[in-house]
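We modelled the chain as a single entity of 192 amino acids. Its sequence is:
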Amino acid sequence: MPDSHLREFGQWITQHPWTEVLAVEGVQEKWDIYINIITQAFHRYFPLKQTRTHPADAPWITPRIKRLIQQRAKAFYTDINLFRQLRNKVIREIKRAKKMYYPNKIKHLQQNSSLWFNRVKSLCGMRQASDIPLLSQFSPDLAAEQINDHFASICQTLPLPDKSDGQVGQEDKNFAHFITIPIGDSIEFGQK
């Protein structure tokens, strides 16, 4: 917002006679007229500006940053010194916006750990719902198979460890016996 708009609004608000508000007796009527006058002046001195957002834009990219990027692009062909100034300003603004984006998203959630954790997961792009179906409707054997399939699908998306040096770490030795367990027809839980 240009400084000139602020100055014009400041001059208007200090020089406005407010006769419309003073002529009315009721408090609610005074308030309604005052709000109406202020809203009209606000829209006159600070008109809405449309900006386009793109799905690929980072969430911290503000309309101000987008305007600076447009100005920088125009200056590239006309004034190299202005381009360099705007380039540095865009970089600073993006750093500042990025630094403030995540803290502003979670600062009001500090009292509620559940909401905080859900918001952090959504900001990180993690899924909120599990893909494991309701297991109470299945027999124990089928439920175990469903759980196994679910965790196996998760493990298939993980990268394999690099074993090019031929060394096996302690954690690999502990994990190795799980790989070689033969799976029978069914596993009975809770029975001797």
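As a brief sanity check on the tokenised model: Helices lie at 3-15, 19-22, 27-45, 63-78, 80-106, 113-123, 140-156, 170-179. The chain is about 60% helix and 0% strand.
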